[in-house]
Amino acid sequence: MPGIVTVGLDGTDHSLAAAGWAAAEAARRGARLRLVHAWIWRPLDVPVAADEEVQRRWAAEVLQEAAARVAKDFPDLPVTREILAAETVPALIAEAAAADLLVLGSRGHGTLVGYLLGSVGLHVLRQAASPVVLVRSPRPEEAGQPRDEVVVGVQDERESGPVLEFAFAAAAAQGVTLRAVRAWNIPPVLVWGGEAMRAADDAGGLEPLERKRLADAVRPWRERFPQVEVVEHVEMGGAGQVLLAGCARARLLVVGRRSPGRHDLRKIGAAAHAALHHAPCPVAVVPHP
């Protein structure tokens, strides 16, 4: 049974860019593309907006415009569209649970994540149980820049399995190099115990130890995806800073996010925050245990 790539639309240029990216991804996966827009009739004070039929027609036109653009570039791609009679956030979280991938538009560069994504995107991203890709409209100055890598951040090698699997599969499907990036810093004295010191000594120092940790995390996925060329990048510095510095040629940046529990719905992680602020490419946020 073919998979499903779902894109949430809101009528902005960024959501149309998300639809284009999602269509290309669905075509690569041999999946179906699902276009959705969440809408509930709410009478408002503004006379035109208070007309239910006007609002309903606008919602349908949002889907029609995206479908027409997709059909032009991917005429053979199976596409469905639906107006979801539900609040936007819970509707998109439910769509994410039913799809292989949820794609949303992002407003791009900003100073606050709330501004960057909007409250809807941020709430969905925090709670979705499946990968979510954020796409923004390309900037004119970025046209023509080479984009021939999938970049993935690997900070916790014990929990990186789902993140690396997603990144390797994306690199394999797109036929591009995978760049695995790991940042490191000198650990605080309080956590630098005897076992850690012995591991560093055995590896020949702190940086060789970090290189070994990255290599160990990546090795099983190298074996599973032998066709993917891999570059392992280890650099001293903050996770977000090092990750973004490695994105010069990225066509997709993949970061992890701990799966939400009862008390951590607000957490995304420093590296994901940095990526969503400033990455020059679509960002895939992959939940992991």
Amount of helix: 40-55%
- Continuous helix count: 9
Query: Taking Cα atoms only, what radius of gyration do you get, to the nearest Å?
Result: 21 Å
Strand content: 15-25%
CATH topology type of the largest domain:
Rossmann fold
Q: Please indicate the count of domains.
A: 2
Please provide the count of β strands.
10
Family: Belongs to the universal stress protein A family.
Protein name: Universal stress protein
Domain UspA: 4-136, 149-287
Pfam families: Usp
Structure overview:
Residues 4-136, 149-287 form the UspA domain. Pfam families: Usp. It comes from Streptomyces paromomycinus. This is Universal stress protein. Belongs to the universal stress protein A family. Residues 108-116 and 262-266 have low confidence and may be disordered. By secondary structure, this protein is an alpha/beta fold. The protein starts with a strand and ends with a strand. Helices cover 43% and strands 21% of the residues. Helix 2 (52-73) links the parallel strand 2 (32-38) and strand 3. It has a ten-stranded mixed sheet, sandwiched between helices. It is elongated, with a radius of gyration of 21 Å. The protein has two domains: 4-137, Rossmann fold (3-Layer(aba) Sandwich), CATH 3.40.50.620; 142-288, 3-Layer(aba) Sandwich (Rossmann fold). Helix 1 (13-29) crosses helix 2 and helix 5 (161-174) packs across helix 7. The longest helix has 22 residues, at 52-73.
